[in-house]
Design brief:
single chain; alpha+beta; 3-stranded antiparallel sheet; 1 helix; 6 strands; 16% helix; globular
């Protein structure tokens, strides 16, 4: 869960730090956003596709589904997969 918050904070910071009118568009967010896995080799992160699809990079229990950028807000829909339950969430930054 901490990883989800970190990605959302990083993407939110990219949006929030724009001076004046927001100069970002959806195309600015398309791509693969990764960070090193703490204490391990490899990376983890999120991939944002042009068609609004999203998926996790090397995170088996967190499944991103969709994303959109609208009116200066980045919205991510994701599922947290667990052993006994599955939660569906939406994060708006």
């Amino acid at each position: 869960m901490k990883r989800v918050c970190l990605y959302c904070v990083l993407l939110w910071a990219a949006v929030a730090c724009a001076p004046g009118d927001n100069k970002y568009s959806e195309r600015d967010f398309v791509g693969i956003w990764v960070e090193p896995v703490p204490g391990m080799a490899g990376v983890q992160g999120i991939a944002l596709e042009e068609d609004g699809a999203a998926h996790s990079v090397n995170m088996a229990t967190l499944r991103y589904e969709t994303w959109k950028y609208e009116k200066g807000r980045l919205e991510l829909q994701y599922m947290i997969l667990g052993e006994s339950d599955t939660a569906q969430n939406e994060k708006k930054s």
